[in-house]
Amino acid sequence: MLNIVGKKKIYFTVSGILIAASLLAIIFFGFRQGIDFLGGTLWQFKITKDVPQLSILENIFKTDLNMAEAKLNFDSTSNTFFVRLPTFSESSHQDALKILKTKFPELEELGFQSIGPSVGHELRKNALIAMVLAIVGISLYIAFAFRKVSRPVSSWKYGLVTLFTLFHDVLIPAGLLALLGRFLGVEIDSNFAVALLVVAGFSVHDTIVVFDRIRENISLDRGKSAFDEVVNRSVNQTLARSINTSLTLILVLLALLFAGPTTLKYFLLALLVGVTTGIYSSIFIASPLLTAWHKLTKK
């Protein structure tokens, strides 16, 4: 049996470093917000024949279309170009499309999405509210679900520990995207909020499994063993199940990350990092933190 609880200082140190690094990245770098939050235009088109190099197309946007602020990306698997621009009118869109079609007759427009600044502000506010409500609601639910567990740790402590692990699991992928935004120009959009909510749900799911086994073993043990021993035994009993189910999800996310569409690359990366930290926190942080709090309360 692994002595997971006994080595909690190591796990707390690792998490402390990751949390501190993520907080520093968010505070000093912030997030590069996409058109979903700031407003702007996303233009998608495909060129099926004589596909130009990205640098050539960028030069066309700067010189022929007079759009020096355009940011272009290319998905080689589907020959699709993604252009991010400030908000511009439909007439300007049609004029630009005509110029491009004269240069590339095989051009096929796939999408043209324009979002105003006020809509972007509303989306940003709603995304933040959704994340806060989800995290608080989950914590309150766990405190309610464990309401009959009062020995030796009160039910509300399960809820607060879960709140901390949620903060841990959501903060680390957020810090990573802040870092990528600073050095690689990665922008966050509404998919980012969805990814964090999915990570929060997955993290809670795994933590509840461990906590439920602790609750069950406390009832069966009837005070014969120390709380640390009961918790450590419970974590070991759920260890194989947690790793096996989580590893399956990680393999799927890795496959999608390397073979999936370019537009979802950083959404999948946030999910992958969040799911991995969620596995780590549910096994090595949540339960040991419960025992550490119990010892501190006794002192």
Description of the structure:
This protein is of the alpha+beta class and 299 residues long. The protein folds into two domains: 5-32 and 118-298, Up-down Bundle (Multidrug efflux transporter AcrB transmembrane fold); 40-114, Alpha-Beta Plaits, CATH 3.30.70. It is 69% helix and 11% strand. The protein contains ten helices and six strands. It has helices at 8-29, 35-38, 54-63, 90-103, 117-145, 155-184, 190-221, 227-259, 265-284, 286-298; strands at 32-33, 40-47, 71-75, 80-85, 107-115, 187-188. It has a four-stranded antiparallel beta sheet with strand order 3-4-2-5. A two-stranded parallel sheet has the order 1-6. Strand 3 (71-75) and strand 4 (80-85) form a beta hairpin. Helix 5 packs antiparallel against helix 6, helix 7 (190-221) packs antiparallel against helix 8 and helix 8 packs antiparallel against helix 10 (286-298). The model has no long low-confidence stretch (mean pLDDT 84).
List keywords for this structure.
6 strands, elongated, alpha+beta, 2 domains, two-stranded parallel sheet, 4-stranded antiparallel β-sheet, 299 residues, Alpha-Beta Plaits, Multidrug efflux transporter AcrB transmembrane fold
